[in-house]
Amino acid sequence: MIQSQCFLSEIPVLCQKLKGRCVFKKILVANRGEIAVRIVRACSEMGIKSVAIYADADRQALHVKKADEAYNIGADPVAGYLNAHNIVNLAVASGCDALHPGYGFLSENPELAEICARRGIKFIGPKASVIRQMGDKILARNAMTKAGIPCTPGSDGNLESLEEAVALATKIGYPIMLKATNGGGGRGIRRCDSEKELLSNYDRVISEASKAFGKPEVFIEKCVVAPRHIEVQVMADAIGNVIHLFERDCSIQRRNQKLIEIAPSPQLTQAQRDYIGGLAVKAAKAVGYENAGTVEFLLDSDNTFYFMEMNTRLQVEHTVTETITGIDIVQEQIRVAYGLPLQYEQKEIQFRGYAMEFRINAEDPKNDFLPSFGKISRYYAPGGPGVRMDAAIYSGYVIPPYYDSMCAKLTVWALDWEDVIARGRRALDDMLIYGVKTTIPYYQQILQHPDFKNAEFNTSFVETHPELTNYANEVPPDVIAAAIAAAIAAHEGI
Question: What does the alpha-carbon distance between residue 221 and residue 40 come to, in Å, rounded to a whole number?
């Protein structure tokens, strides 16, 4: 019996050796929520032990339960996840040889990558110098311009004063976007349609930039009105191989926060797809990129692409790319970080069908998307053909109020556009979350809209259709009956 157990424990290692994929022994996941669960699962499939971290508020979180080891990082719900030195110290102390930052928190912080390098921990992501370069919007724009990547007209550097901002905006022409140079995640961005709005927003963006990113640096670029938001997933190894995994359409968004993501874009021709994929590869090569990254573009009404930014990390919406290509991006990240070459050449990358991801947020769309944190009394995950769930919730789980409102991601796949919409409707109907408000019924309204069905939408879709929040809050009779029965049982002590 002992011999059998020993043999079974060695199977993952043997599998790695047989495939020529000897990789890290233990990885610390420097994140929380569903992305931490996602990384833990990738590690498990690769025979790699995983280490989770958690604040007191996350003591009962799913990533803590799924990881091989878990360590508390303090009472403060946020500070522990942002303390790069302590996290790397923990990685060293727990015997990890690599660290995966996920997305958010420290994922695009070059200091974390530098600390990892000094302590002998492999950072699963690009080099610190590249993170720093592409995180600075001015440096990124200049690098892309030099590489021949089309960029929107705007500042050559950071703005020195409000007067300079007004003069440049007048030259470029309104509307303009006032942006934090080191921004991300939709923060530190204001559209200004007139000089009056620029005057009122300038100090506000400076303040947001200082609070969110520690630097009061801002710049201006021409606003592309009602664009389509198209991004390209790239993968690169340490020996110079760069490929793209096609594009994602992220045009359905609210206040610069993505809601629904689609791969490939139903709004592009094959010629446009080839063109933007080539631009993304060119952009990645221009900065010596390694690991997974995303090059984001805006597509205007004249079908002109403009570089927007590069995210030097794993994206929330990577699931749709995995679904249409069959490539596990997280596992490929780990292999590349270990020093192995990409497993695929560009000519081998193909896609099939359409995939759509819904960010299930604990929010009340009927109440201006007010966060709805609290206890999930019951949770039923959808299933069936072409359905994938990435979640960190379960029945009885309490969604803490300290973090992003996204609590799950639903990804659906089908061979054609009409069928993926139908599958999305069915899967959203299957998914039941009780105890908190969610964006599920709102997404059902979007899927039924004629413009969405016809694949004719842009980043202004949500704001131009406020009527989509006017849905009825109907509770099915069986749900009411179940709730009454549960209450009676609880009262009677059954």
Answer: 40
State pLDDT tens for residues 426-463: 999 999 999 999 999 999 999 999 999 999 999 999 99
Q: What is the mean pLDDT of residues 230-238?
A: 98
Active site residue 313: yes
End-to-end CA distance of the chain: 42
Using DSSP's 3-state secondary structure scheme, residue 159 falls into coil
| Whole-number Å distance between alpha carbons of 25 and 334 | 11
**CA–CA distances in Å: residue 311 to residues 124, 295, 339:** 14, 7, 21
The amino acid that residue 488 corresponds to is I
List Cα–Cα distances, 379 to 26, 394, 398, 408, 435, in angstroms: 32, 6, 12, 11, 9
The model's confidence at residue 7, banded by pLDDT at 50, 70 and 90, is very low
Active-site residue, from 313, 335, 359, 423: 313
**According to the model, what pLDDT value does residue 13 have?**
45
CATH number for the domain formed by residue range(s) 153-222: 3.30.1490.20
Which class does domain 2-124 fall in? alpha beta
Rounded to an integer, the average pLDDT of 388-392 is: 97
Find out if CATH 3.30.470.20 is the number for domain 228-477: yes
